[in-house]
Amino acid sequence: MKWNINKLPARTKDWILTGMFAMIICLLPLIFSSDYIIHIGCMIGINILLALGMHFVTGLAGQINMGQYGFYCIGAYAGALLTTKGGLGFVPSLIVTIAISAAFGMLVGIPALKVEGPYLSLCTIGFAESVRLVINSAGWSNKSNGIMRIPKLEIFGWTMQTKTMSYFFIFVFVLIGLIIVTNFVNSNYGRRFSAIKDDPLAASVMGVNVRKVKIMAFVLCAIFAGVAGCLYANYAGYIHPTTFVQALQTNFLLMIVLGGLGSTWGSVLGATLITVVYEYTRVYAEYQKIAFGVVMILTVLFLQRGIVGTIRYHKQQKMIRDQHAGGKNDGKEAAV
């Protein structure tokens, strides 16, 4: 009997893929022992969390968010200030950062109730730039000098002294995030998000609280970005306002579009590919933005469904052709 993963329920497939992903995470440090490769792995984990946040608001709810780097900045500075000036450990600072990020997500989600499309994207860009400019000029954030000597990642007194330890620590949060997202997508709330993305008016007629869902999308997006920022600040040990610039938003958007808009695993794949390309093209900084712009244009022209979406589409078309061919054969046999 031939086993076919495509015939399994969506929730079961997600659990299998999550298990396979966890195995790959564990094997990577054994295959590549270089600190630089492990560092790229850490950045992949942080960017996966950011992409999953974008997946909530843009991929599932269909709301254009161009201010993810603002939430990322808030999470990083909140975590850094709470650990350096507040004297909190990583876990308490992370809990407070999540609360702060959720509050800002709700604040940004309110305009989403009134505006849509390019107007919403302008609102989110304005929010993110305001965050960056305030932090760049505020005394409590050390202005453009940034924050130095941020404590390393730690939990219950156990400090992540090496990059490999930080790598596994970060990917624990990635796996938790993946489990949360996959369960959310298969829940009633996930279906409500999809309904609003397809047709907000029809969804409201069917009893979906559009206002609540839109705000929830931005809150979840902000929480994931806040966690990613907090992890980055404590992993890097130093942050400054120029780290969180608008150019990052192109990368975040490209992650979910290239991987497959609306696909959880597409966000993971897109974040992995874009992070690897970004890290290995740092030496060509003057051409990097041009290269990413070209990738975005090519994706829109030739991979409109993204990598995962294109693969799924071709599989569906193959199944339809096979069923059609099977139907014809059955008809011929019956005629004989």
From TrEMBL:
CDD domains: TM_PBP1_LivM_like (cd06581). Its main location: membrane. It is found in: Cell membrane. It is a multi-pass membrane protein. One of its GO terms (molecular function) is branched-chain amino acid transmembrane transporter activity. GO terms for cellular component: plasma membrane. Keywords: Cell membrane, Membrane, Transmembrane, Transmembrane helix. InterPro entries: ABC_transp_permease, LivM-like. The chain crosses the membrane at residues 12-31, 37-57, 69-88, 94-113, 167-185, 215-240, 252-278, 290-311. This is Branched-chain amino acid ABC transporter permease. It comes from Anaerotruncus colihominis. The lineage of its organism: Bacteria, Bacillati, Bacillota, Clostridia, Eubacteriales.
